[in-house]
Amino acid sequence: MDQDGNTHQAMEFLGIARYMIRPDEDTYAILLEGWANEGNVISATQTFAEMLMEIGWDPRNVSAYDTFLTTVIKGPDGIGEAMKFFAAMKERQCYPGMNFLKAAIEECERKGDGKDALLLWEAMVGGQGCKPDTEMYNSMITVQCHVMDSALAKRLLDEMVYNGAFPDSQTYNVLFHFVIKNRRLNEASPIFTEMIKNECVPSHSNCSLAVRIFMEGGDPHMAIKIWKCMIGNYKSDLKETGNLLVVGLLDDNRVPEAVKYAVDMIDRWIKLDSSTLSKLKQSLTYAGKAFVYDVLLRKWKTR
Predict the structure, then answer these.
(1) Among 25, 153, 184, 289, which has the highest number of CB atoms less than 10 A from its own CB?
(2) Separation of alpha carbons 283 and 255, rounded Å
(3) Given pLDDT bands bounded at 50, 70 and 90, which one contains residue 8?
(4) Residues with Cβ < 8 Å from 200, sequence gap 6 or more?
(5) What is the tens place of the pLDDT at every residue in 131-148?
(6) How far apart are alpha carbons 163 and 152 in whole angstroms?
(7) 284, 293 in Cβ contact below 8 A?
(8) How many other CB atoms are there within 10 angstroms of residue 16's CB atom?
(9) What is the mean pLDDT of the chain?
(10) Does an H or E element contain 81, and which?
């Protein structure tokens, strides 16, 4: 009866039928599914309590536990209430399934709750051998980056393939953004190398941020690698980052490289700012190569 959204009627029928036929796990699983479809947390909690009184705890009753917790997590204090019930289940070696784990990790991501996410992950993945998919790993990595635990986030990335999940562009971009934003350049370089090897491209915004942070961090080599990646994969909004790179190379006294990438920008129709041109002129004149600037300027004027 609950398939038509009439879970209340199903409960009323159970109240009459229980004196003739004892309800079993399937009975309560069906009722809990009905409350889940209706989003009725209060009635689901009452039915769950009744189920425990009637048939007790049973590790095989995964479907009922999964449906119940997935319903509870949608309530006002969803993750808090769900964690209380989960603790009671864990104590009795009764666990929910993957639907709850996925919903819980997504909720933890939304709230930035790294503690509960880790507790659930260790119990369900580490303890019960659940196999999360890539989407779940992405949520978990995002949570850990949010709480500044890059070591755990990187460990999650490394273990994905062992659980049959494979990193995608989102996986790498979340982690790459975190380490770049926090200027952990020694961690960012290998992540960038790995993501390119796996044909996952940093987002446009991550490329822009990375070029700037690597230049400010004294690593123009990596800044140039990321700039090459950026112009190889994006065709617009390149002006700001390109000018930043050229100016940064000039500030680092890498004049030949600055000229090289300035010319390349012109060839790609990426506009050099007047302030960048002025700095190029100053640096080339000081190096006794004003003629190089004249050639560059003529080329710029034809664009």
Answers:
(1) 153
(2) 7
(3) low
(4) 167, 168, 169, 171, 172, 173
(5) 999 999 999 999 999 999
(6) 16
(7) yes
(8) 8
(9) 90
(10) helix 78-91
Q: Which residue has the higher pLDDT, 294 or 211?
A: 211
Residue 7 pLDDT > 70: no
How high is the pLDDT of residue 265? 95
Whether the predicted pLDDT of 114 surpasses 90: yes
Q: What is the helix (H) or strand (E) element at residue 31, kind and residue range?
A: helix 25-38
203: CB partners within 8 A, 6+ apart: 169, 173, 177
Q: Are 45 and 78 in contact (CB under 8 A)?
A: no
The mean per-residue pLDDT over the stretch 161-180 comes to: 95
Residue 1 has pLDDT above 70, yes or no: no
Using CB atoms within 10 Å of the CB of residue 286, give its burial: 0 to 12 exposed, 13 to 18 middle, 19+ buried: exposed
**Residue 172 token pair:** 């790498």
Q: Give the CA distances from residue 7 to residues 24, 40, 47, 152, in Å, rounded to whole numbers and listed in that order.
A: 17, 10, 11, 43
Instruction: Choose among 258, 182, 266, 181: nearest CA to 231.
Output: 266
Q: How far apart are CA 7 and CA 242, in angstroms?
A: 62
Q: Determine the pLDDT at residue 6.
A: 57
Tokens of 111: 């709230």
Q: What is the dihedral of CA 156, 157, 163, 165, to 10 degrees?
A: 130
Report yes or no: 176 and 192 within 8 Å, Cβ to Cβ. yes
Residue type, 150: S
Question: For the stretch 236-249, what's the b/e string if a residue is b when 16 or more beta carbons lie within 10 angstroms of its beta carbon?
Answer: eebeebbbbbbbbb
Detail the DSSP E strand segments found in the chain.
none
80's CB contacts (< 8 A; 6+ apart) are none
Amino acid identity at 107: E
Q: How far apart are CA 176 and CA 5, in angstroms?
A: 46
Residue type for position 226 = I
Q: pLDDT tens across 232-268, in order? A: 999 999 999 999 999 999 999 999 999 999 999 999 9
Q: Are 237 and 223 in contact (CB under 8 A)?
A: no
